[in-house]
Amino acid sequence: MKIERVEKGVCSLCGGADDVLCIDWGEAELPSVLLCAGCRDELKENIRDAEKCAEDASASNLPPLTEKIAAEAAQMTEEDFDEKYLQDTVDRVVFEFIRGYGRMEVDGPSMSMMVLMLENVSEDEILEHIQSLAERGILYPVAGKKGWYGADYPFLDDN
Q1: Are 20 and 39 in contact (CB under 8 A)?
Q2: Would the pTM of this model clear 0.70, i.e. be above it?
Q3: Tens of pLDDT along 109-152?
Q4: What is the dihedral of CA 134, 107, 113, 70, to 10 degrees?
């Protein structure tokens, strides 16, 4: 990314000409953008607000059923947890994969990896298992992040 001051130019967002900077993203498919001081300040404020919302979402409590299972898991070994909640191979792979990241988007590269790991299982089948795990409280949807799920709680044998 390259940022340069522009003497003669107008803001791509509002048309203002006060202290305009050109932001070149360094990628051919993303056009450069001109931003005035006011729009940059508003953008910074929006970014801070979004970061604050993300912090609040990550600090929020788990859904009640997931909280109950997480509390139970803290008193169980991973093997005991698997025997009680993850009898299905697909459930086990999906849970372990998502738990490995704590919280992750289950679309795109992560879905491709799960499909590779589960050779004969389609994306749709994996999504059904993810939904089932979420409905049972084993996984939880991450607040404010569409398509993200979490499984970031410890087991007794993690210490």
Answers
A1: no
A2: no
A3: 888 889 998 988 999 999 999 999 999 999 999 888 889 999 98
A4: -20
Closest CA to 149 of 128, 135, 134, 136: 134
> Nearest Cα to 110, choosing from 99, 23, 30, 71?
99
Structure tokens at 60: 């929020």
Q: Quick one: how far is CA 108 from the chain centroid? A: 12
Which position has the token pair 């970031």? 152
Q: Is 95 exposed, middle or buried (0-12, 13-18, 19+ CB in 10 A)?
A: buried
Say if strands 103-105 and 33-35 run parallel, antiparallel, or are unpaired: unpaired
CA distance linking residue 55 with residue 49, whole number of Å:
10
- C-alpha 64, offset from chain centre: 21
Edge-to-edge strand ranges of the sheet holding 103-105 = 103-105, 148-150, 140-141
pLDDT digits (tens, 9 = 90+) for 38-64: 999 988 888 887 777 656 544 446 888
